[in-house]
UniProtKB/TrEMBL annotation, chains A, B, C, D, E:
One of its GO terms (molecular function) is magnesium ion binding. Coiled coil: none annotated. Belongs to the CorA metal ion transporter (MIT) (TC 1.A.35) family. GO terms for cellular component: plasma membrane. The keyword Ubl conjugation does not apply. This is Magnesium transport protein CorA.
Length: 372, 372, 372, 372, 372
């Protein structure tokens, strides 16, 4: 009856992790064909270009040397691309396996000449399902390669900022670019939490007005979503901390100042998630209490009605008994056999007695506060 | 029916955080026009002045060099002011963004030449709503700038102390002034906790006397408020610790002694909040137990009444049956067809039997302790 | 009905903390006039003397130089005394404020020339209320000043030991004296816990025999008391640890050996409190389960009685119907209109059928185990 | 009725641990006769051979010096084998005792010349029981000995990889081989968790559609399995960390890179287990709420039916009373004795009144929302 | 009815701890007269001798110099013995007080020339009560003194091992002997946990088959026992760790290898206890769910019977009403007054209508799944 449009968690395929040979790239069965866009920029210029294959990418990077490059790869379905990247940039095969695996916890691994990081991008798709996508980054001196599973346009705010050229983004190097991408990811966590928080408020509202059976399912779905966000945000926080403490020259001191800022944001995400988890717990308790209260209401109605009318019915039953006033054979009056029935006004007095009994009970229940 | 005036949490607008470009100041849509007051003081004098715009502020600071200045800004709705402060005091744009953002966790950031700190000011407004306001501080050698979101006069105790000139406040420098402001903030936490604690006591009282359906909502609101305070106090504690451990020359050794004191207070806030959270949990359990007990009461009434009268009604029903004593056609006595009805005193004996049955049941229920 | 004499927590006035100016002593409105006793002792002698005012104290200390002094102050209601102590022993005003404040967490502060420590003294007063009193210590080379809020004689065991002169107490200096006072405080925690543990055992006993509505309140009061003890014991433990690790010459190496011993005791207090908290949780669960079980009992009685007699009453009702055997106008026999009523032994067979039906139901309920 | 094929935990025999003399090997009563397979390999060749006894093993190792050996022992029922290994490789008797004990937590012990590690292998056997088997490793420069309790072929993926010769496995030494075995173990945890996660989804589905009594047992079994996995994975994680931090030359730098990878996997296992434990808690709450809701449903039916018909039955009872209209002896009309019975249309009006009463109650219950 | 032989916790007398003067030995009121056995051994010989008093002990130790001695004291009721030990071996009085106190947490204290350690020995006595006894050790170069409260023969396995002379025990010195005693203590924890685990399994079995009211008490007793074991095992673990890290020459390097082994065992005890505590929580939830389910069952029976027969009884009641067909005075037919009663087959049709109504309801309840 109640129509909250319900946020659900998109089920994740997970089976392919188990049994892999380490260091061997295995593509997901449903991985998408990669869409590659390269943004090459300096303070003064910004070239954004769609790339078709690794050869074209190679050519583009060679041609625009001296610029900073962001290679944005959406879709992980090309083994050839992985092999090209592995060879061209000398990337460890464990890194490539992790990118293709898509079920990594957020982490930072430092390798010789580059850094590898993963994050979980959480966002609502058009069916109000929470997508849990892996985003991977390879950070090199002038190049940042980012990998997404879907074609979804989550990183659009960064593109806008690049195009606008406001702030540091155009001259602060590849580590700053990576920071802005991570910033967008964490902002997405906030958006999701606020969205879920609104749902919790609606549910609380509903509990007040009109609790129904489906509420537990809604609360539980939100709790699961909170658990999901926490599972992404906790290790993300550790990852950012690792980046701040890292002494790799790839992360500039200036970027670290900004990283401290999103570290605080990430802490806030975790704080909020914990608070909302506490809230869901209380909502579950409230729901139980409301159900029990309704039971009490129901029982009160039953008890009041039954307690009043059952004794009255008994009295009526008594005077409905057929004890004979006279012996059917002799016609003799059988003394004490229900003389009330033959008394003048017996009926009236009986009705009055019944009314009195009912009134006493009503008063008793009123005193117990059962009519409130 | 029961009229506890209920403390609620004022809903926070939160949406504007997500999607910001880092280091770009974005004013809240409903930010207030700033009210600026400057208190310039030394041991011997105190000048307090309302300031209209940044130019006047500039002039005032220039004129009263040598004094310690507290620039108290209430309302964050002027981009021009942020820009002036950024330029005049050489403040990092991330700092200005955080001041305008109003959703920061309490934290301390050390910058070259100044310290930046935020706190959460929690207080009850006139509608008994808990306001959750951000208070930001920029601490410079002789200047402390404080930023509040609203015009609310929370910091009045500090003004009074400045005017009174008692204690260290007039000669202990800007870091001591900042400490007194933080002290007021933490004192506010205490006030709020005690207020909520009183409500909890009232609720417990109510649970004893007259539990009703709304109690769960009240408990839950208090639990949420406790969660809110904890979310403010935990990072506040860390912030104070950071200040104590800081080797910045901006925080004098003397101030640190006092900071240790509010560190202890902050720990106490956290302790109290945890204790009260435990208490709310128990109250929820008590409420559930009370509801169940009331159900038992109701069921007992129903069961006693039903169990006594239903069998009696059955007996009355039996003697209300119309089995014929004589065959209607032949007039022959049909043996065994309800001779009781025609026995002398049959009615009396039946009533006595009914009374006995009822007495046995009453005794049985009494023995089971159902009348207590 | 059930008469457990109930331990309650004496409500603490708390309001005065908020809004104080730091470093300004504010006496509690209901603070008592100080009772001062000085115990001056060496290995060979013990002088104990009641002191009336600060002047007398001054004289006494001057006269008995060379001895170790324990200045035992009970009652904090004299501003003049605080000022004297502050000036005479050069005590920081934050310390004096903390002593007067009476709501400190246990802590140790090291100052130049003296140590300041607070503890929470918990004890049962004559109304079986748990008093939560602050005890403060100023430890100087040959003088220990202790402050209590009430005149209560909690520290009597130490006086007895001083008088007896057994053990180290008379020659081990002021830090050892302070240790013995702390030892008494922690022993008091134990006493209180064991007392509460006994109540828990009684409550469990009661749950077995005769659960009633008030049990939840009793359990909750004990849980609150446990929370109170834990809130005192956790920081006490930290305080003792700080004393052990302190490199202040005021705490002798020998005393530290003994402090390790009460550190272990304090850990044990915390362990016991946590265990008992677990036990209260289980008791709450048991109580809920017992209430539900009783509900089941009640429902069984209702269901058995109703299920047996309602169908029988129906049968009686059927044969109480007035369907006419003959047409009132024509006198014609209306076939099928209740010939049972005119059958010979119809009544008897009906009673037998009713008995059979009841027997079947009783058997059914017996098989379901409802009579156990 | 509902047929989820249920995963259970195979009960572990545990009694033999207690009372052992330390360092004395005691075989399990039901330990299997060892099956020994040796895989000796270098980059260019792979010899795999079934071994019958320790003499044959000795000969094999002597013959194939220069190769890397994996001695895979399945079944721990031969004291002679333990003694041979102890003597031949100079293994500490505590290590041999731990291998035979089969109830160790995962751990790493470094000894002179070799490393000893244990893991818990969890897998589903053919009866859908979770087997909890101990796997032990002795790592020496060119030899890895692995011990399993059962003949189960869990390590088959490693054998396949060895035979395929892909990746590092054939030339990266014994520590890399040990890593691949641990990788298989952790992959098994994932498989098990996903399997249990699927069951949880099915149970949730069932809760929606058709909750029944057995659900609690199913939830509890899954919770127990989660606890089991966590108990294996937490110390496994510590073990891997010990290996990464170890400075033993037995673990190559290259292997450590890979160990970091399974460290992350192990963290993920722990994360997932915690999340699923949270989910089971919610499912238990949901189940309770559903049961209560059903109770409400049942009570509503009872209350509606009873509340409507009991008052009506009372009215019928009233007009079934036998108050006499005339005195049986004098024939005089007894005024007020039930004149309604002799009024024209009295019956009709009574039925209408009954219908009206029923309609009012139906309306009342409808308004309370009891028909939804 | 159900006969699980129930394990209970033997209540501990605890009052005597509070109020002791530190360093003053106070014997328990019910302390037993000491039984002293000395085992003096070297690799080649083992002399075991009952000792009557401290003089005899002195003589024995003097006579058998060069051997390693284990002085096994059971019963702590002799002040003279404590004084002898204190003087003979130069033991600190705090140590002696702790030995006599019998309520210590497990701990290790290092003193000059000896180590002092306590453990909690938990075992089942013949009444299936869990005894919680203190075991204390004083470890000196060639002497180990162990103290037990009771005469119980818990340490018998060590005596057997000494007599057998297998393993290291006869030549590895006093620290190894102490290790073997601690090993026996921890093995006892395991035995107890497994015993309690078996009870939990029985309880779960019982919950399936035949839940009754006493189950909550049984679960709670086991939970309490688990809490007790945890309270012993956690500090025991810390103690073992302290011993491993200790640089005292009293603990040989070889013994430390073995201590690492029981450290792992102790961790396992803690793991198991936590797991079983989780299990008890689930059992409590299951029990609540089962009680609620039974309530549902009971309510269903009541509702089905009542809902079917109450309306039928009403119908019977209607046709039992005495509305008159003719005016008693005029004999005129009162139209509409219950003509059904005089219709041919009116009775039959009424019965059929009743049957139909009942069938509809049965069908309705069947559809709702209430008959399963």
């Amino acid at each position: 009856m109640s129509k909250i449009r319900r946020i659900t968690i998109k089920p994740k395929k997970y089976r392919q992790v188990a049994g892999n040979s380490p260091g061997v790239i295995e593509l997901d069965a449903d991985a998408l064909e990669p869409l590659i866009t390269v943004f090459s920029y300096s303070e003064s210029e910004l070239i954004s270009q769609e790339i078709k294959n690794s050869g074209e990418l190679d050519a583009h990077l060679a041609k625009h040397q001296g610029l900073t490059h962001w290679v944005d790869i959406r879709g992980l379905g090309s083994m050839e691309l992985f092999e090209y990247i592995g060879k061209r940039f000398n990337i460890h095969k464990l890194v490539l396996e992790d990118i293709a695996g898509t079920l990594q916890r957020p982490k930072l691994d430092e390798y010789d000449g580059y850094l590898f990081a993963t994050s979980r991008m959480l966002y609502l798709n058009d069916n109000l399902e929470i997508e849990n996508e892996q985003m991977s980054f390879i950070l090199m001196p002038d190049i940042l390669i980012s990998f997404q599973e879907n074609y979804q346009d989550c990183l659009h705010p960064v593109v806008t900022r690049l195009e606008g050229g406001k702030g540091n983004i155009r001259f602060a190097g590849s580590s700053y670019l990576m920071y802005t991408l991570m910033d967008v990811i964490i902002d997405n966590y906030f958006g999701l939490i606020y969205r879920l928080g609104d749902e919790l408020d609606m549910i609380e509202e509903l509990l007040y007005r009109k609790p129904d059976k489906s509420i537990m399912y809604k609360i539980q779905e939100i709790k699961r979503a909170m658990i999901l966000i926490r599972r992404a945000a906790w290790p993300e926080r550790d990852k950012i901390n690792d980046m701040i403490r890292s002494d790799s020259p790839l992360i500039t001191q200036d970027t670290k100042t900004f990283l401290k800022d999103i570290y605080d944001h990430c802490m806030q995400v975790v704080d909020l998630v914990e608070s909302y988890k506490d809230v869901t717990t209380t909502l579950i308790d409230m729901n139980l209490s409301i159900i029990s209260n309704r039971m009490n209401e129901i029982m009160k109605v039953l008890t009041i009605i039954s307690s009043i009318f059952i004794p009255l019915t008994f009295i009526a039953g008594v005077y409905g008994m057929n004890f004979s006033y006279t012996d059917p054979e002799t016609g003799k009056v059988l003394h004490h056999n229900m003389p009330e029935l033959y008394a003048e006004n017996g009926y009236l007095y009986t009705l009055l007695a019944m009314g009195l009994l009912a009134a006493i009970q009503v008063f008793y229940f009123y005193r117990k506060g059962w009519f409130k």
